[in-house]
Amino acid sequence: MEDFKRTLKLQIIEALNLQGMQPEEIDDNAPLFGDGLGLDSIDSLELIVLLERNYGIKIEDPREGRKVFESIHVMADYIQANRKK
Amino acid sequence: MDLAEIMQVYFSASMIKPIFIRTARAVCAQDSFSSNDLLQPVRTLSGNRFTYLEPNYQDYFTIMQLRRMSRITRLGLVTAIECLRDAGDTQPEAIITGTGKGSLTDTEKFIHSVREFAEGTLNPSPFIQSTYNSLNGLIGLHHQINSYNSTYVHSGFSLEHALLDAAFQLNEQSIQTALVGSFEEMTPEHYIIKEKLDFWKKEIDGPDAIMKSSPGAISGEGSFFFFLDYQQGAAPLQLVDLTLLFEPGEGAVLHAMDSMLEQHGLGWDQLDVYLSGRNQDSRYEHYYEKVEQRLSATTHQLHFKHLSGEFDTAAGFGLWSAVRMAEKNQLFPSMIRKQGSTQSMDYMLLYNQYYGKQHSIYLLKKT
């Protein structure tokens, strides 16, 4: 699971163009939006695209997305439970 | 000149009052940004195109801010920030830019994504950043400017339309200041597309290739910003007149220059500096040659594209040079093509054309 979380962080860094940021700088349990990593609504769309392209997961209800993207830990659990590829 | 040629005069700004250029900033292939000067020695061509020197963006933005900016928008924003800082005014009453192609990097990224994912899951960021007016939005957001905001995309007339828009509004005094600029980038892929359209020189055999007359030009890129004011103040340069011509004959270009000078009570021998957009593209050199034949021996003849390369808004480099030379009261030595005999540099004529189609003639006056 720890390896998967690191892979996920690398994918997020690339997808959100977080140049210069290292996976270690992203806390597994810190909120991705708001006070934590400080992501916004456009990032939310980017993460939805990431899930669909990389894991075949379609999130059509934005409210569901908000819960899934709560933290790296929550996101990794959700992907492992729902991935289609 | 016959009627057909007269009809080719696209726009003449002779009816507008002069406006003043208070500050100017440039990022291009030369070391022009840090000192706002053209530092020696100048950079020569390496490879097949001129690429601009990137400022240190970390001095201006955090990682979280930079990730929402494409290569060209971050460059344009830094250029605009320094232009406003120099002017001592971060609240211009208009932000107006011109660009031929905008953010090509993100446009290509978005189009590739459309193809790769069959119009399915597309990333929003490259689409947002690829729009032509994204830089204007960023400038407005950065300085919290809610005033008039517009971008012109008219190939070799893009910067000129931005200047004209500002000039009209300044003349009407609906605004008193304006930030006007241009931005252009070249990507490897777009270079190949234009190569197939015969935009570039075929044989680029070293740094002197740009000085040799042959079909095609050398590619370039850059960003240029100007702070315009309706009144003189401490502005070093005045934009007296601006005429645009579309696909004119040589006669129409000379006629437009004659008319412009006559309108302002000037003769050719009163031009102190001639700034030429000559790029050694043998297909269109005849335009420049005809003008050079008309110039007086007193006039200093300067050119600038051997330092910047060719692009839709390359005239911005010429205009930045004029502003900076006027402020310093000194010509840039690396631009002198033919030394004139005059000791003054009151009136300058900037003539640029883009592949024979869009021709722009600027009459400038040192204040």
UniProtKB/TrEMBL annotation, chain A:
It holds the Pfam family PP-binding. It comes from the Bacteria. This is Phosphopantetheine-binding protein. InterPro entries: ACP-like_sf, PP-bd_ACP. Residues 2-83 form the Carrier domain. Gene3D superfamilies: ACP-like.
